[in-house]
Structure formats: structure tokens, C-alpha cells
Amino acid sequence: MVRKFIPNKLILIILFPLISSCISHHMLEPYTGDIKSNNTLTNNNNTTVIDAVNAPVINPTSGTYSRDIKVAITCSTSGASIYYTTDGSTPTASSELYSHTIAISGDGTFVTIKAIAIKDGMPDSSIVTRDYAINYGQVSTPTILPASNTYNDDISITIYCATPNVSAYYTTDGSDPTTSSTPYTEAIVLNKTATVKVIAVKDEMLDSTIASNDYTLKVSTPVIDPASKTSSVDIPVTMSCDTPDATIYFTTNGDDPTTLSTPYVGMFTIGESATIKAKAFKGEMDASDVVSVDYIIIPPPPPMPGGGMPPPPGGMPGLPPPPM
Which alpha helices (H) appear in the chain, and where do they start and end? Predict the structure, then answer.
């Protein structure tokens, strides 16, 4: 068997036209397709790569909020539709179509939002989940000043609250206040015994607990001068009261005074034994306690026959006492 030798150079000359044709028609063919906005790569023949729809973006982020919120969902893939659920279930094209912000409101509310973005001709996006809780918090209990006590004149009441920008409402009849009660805008002038109750409110927070103070407004007990005494001469009597503009009424027969008794207008004189009682009144304030004094007037001794005066005890001055 005779083997013929074919030089390598000759083989290369024979195969070169075939290799060149392959390279020019296939391997070096220029790409004339488009990279579309939806991230789909195409060439002259067919689609070679298809990316999924971009995942939706949900704002705000998951968390606990002290106020009502509105949730917005967006997707950067043009033309994609967003579907969502608020019960934690998996969203599909049959779920709620997103068209506006989602309101989450009410103290104690907890919502899980899940969203998916869908577009024809593209794989669906991944599912995005956000968890939201609403916890309003409570307005601080208001402080009422001055403190509960008994006062002997009109008082000015002020209300404070540590929570800023609240609205306060109050009552003075002991009933629980609501937002329909009297709004607090300035100091409250109290001129009678009362129970003041206050509530503070603010949007998207729980109302404060009710603060309550008890005020007794009572006229000061009058002072009668002098105090109880015994005298052989008339006694000048004055009265006073520490409560401004109070009116004092008195009796001299031992009865408790009322506003129908004799009003005190100035000093007077007691010429015979008497029990004097006095009581002070002012407007709607509680009347004062009754004060009482006893005056005993010693009458002068009766005259002696002939108009003389009886000798003082022990006989006449300068003379020995009569024999026993």
C-alpha cells in the first residue's frame, strides 16, 4: 500500500476558503438588535434573555408608628401593575390592584402588606413584605394648680400638660369632661366650692386620663373684738373678716345669724349682758363658721338711802372697821 504525502501547507490552502466563510457569516456577524427598556435582550433571530419585573418598593419601612400612616407602593418597571394584600396572604393578579396609598389607622392596628408587580410578557417580580403596627401612645395626665384644699377667697386655676400641643377640656360640676366640654384657653376663676376635672387630647394619641381636684371655697370665720369678758361698763365691739368683700351678720340673743340678721357696718356698744354670734357670707362661697362671745355687764350697786353710796368693803377710808 502506497501512502501519498500531502503537505500541511496544501491542506491549509484547501480549507481556508471554508473557514473564512464560517467566520464571516456566523462568528463575526454584527449584533443589530435592541436592549429594550424592560431589560429584554433581543437580536435579529429571537429573544435570548428575559429579566423579571423589578420588585416593588413599599414605603415607609416596616415598624411601629405612633400615628396613622399612608403606605405607597412603586415599581421601576415601566407598565407593570402592582397587586397587594393586607392580610398576609400571597398576592396574585387576582388580588387588589394598587391605585392609591393605603391608609393604616387606629391604635392597636397591625397590618402585613405583601405586594407583587406583574407585566405581560415578563416573569412576575418577587414578593415584597412590610409589617406595620400603630401604637398611638397616651397624652400625659394634666396638672391642675393650685392643689385640692380649702380656700377663703376666689382662686385662679391653671392647667398644664407635659405633652406638647394638646387641647384641654374641663368641667366644674364634677362630671367627666369630653371634647364637648368647655375648652381651656385661660385661667379659670373659681368663686365657689367645686370639683374641677380636666382631660387633654391630641390627634393620633389616646386621650389622657382625667385629672380631678376638689376645692372648698369658704368664707373666713369672723373675729369679734374683744373676746368674751366681764365688765362693769359698756363694751365697744368691733368685727372683722379676712375674706375680702365678705359681709358679717350678727345676733345678740344667742341665735345663729343668717343673711336676715343684723349686718355689721361698724363698731357698736354692748350695755348689758349678751351672747353675740357672728357669721360671714360672700356670693356663692360657703358661709363661714359661727363665732360666739359672751359679755357680762355688772350692774352698778343700788344707791343708799339719802342718796349716799354704800361704803366700800372694809368701811370708810381712814376709819377702823366696825366692831364685830
Answer: 8-22
Specify the amino acid at residue 217.
Answer: L
Higher pLDDT, 47 or 119: 119
Looking up cell 403596627 gives 133
Q: Is the pLDDT of residue 101 over 70?
A: yes
Question: How far apart are the C-alpha atoms of 23 and 33, rounded to whole Å?
Answer: 20
| Contact criterion met (CB below 8 Å) for 200 and 163 | yes
DSSP structural state of residue 129: E
pTM over cut 0.70: no
Answer yes or no: are the C-beta atoms of 199 and 205 closer than 8 Å.
no
Cell numbers 362630671 correspond to what residue? 175
Looking at this protein, which amino acid is placed at residue 266? G
Strands (DSSP E) along 55-99, which ranges? 57-59, 63-65, 69-74, 81-85, 96-97
Q: Which among 164, 201, 203, 166 is positioned nearest to 66, based on CA atoms?
A: 203
Report yes or no: 301 and 310 within 8 Å, Cβ to Cβ. yes
- pLDDT tens string 134-158: 998 999 999 999 999 999 999 999 9
Q: All 3 cell numbers of residue 90?
A: 400571597
Q: Is the peptide bond before 146 cis (omega within 30 degrees of 0)?
A: yes
pLDDT tens profile 279-304: 999 999 999 999 999 999 998 887 77
* DSSP-assigned letters across all residues of 263-298: EP-S-EEE-S-EEEEEEEE-TTSBPPPPEEEEEEEP
Alpha-carbon gap, residue 174 to 247, rounded angstroms: 29
Q: Which three cell numbers stand for residue 137?
A: 401612645
CA dist list (Å): 7 to 2, 11, 14, 16, 265: 16, 7, 11, 15, 152
CB 261 within 8 A of CB 278: no
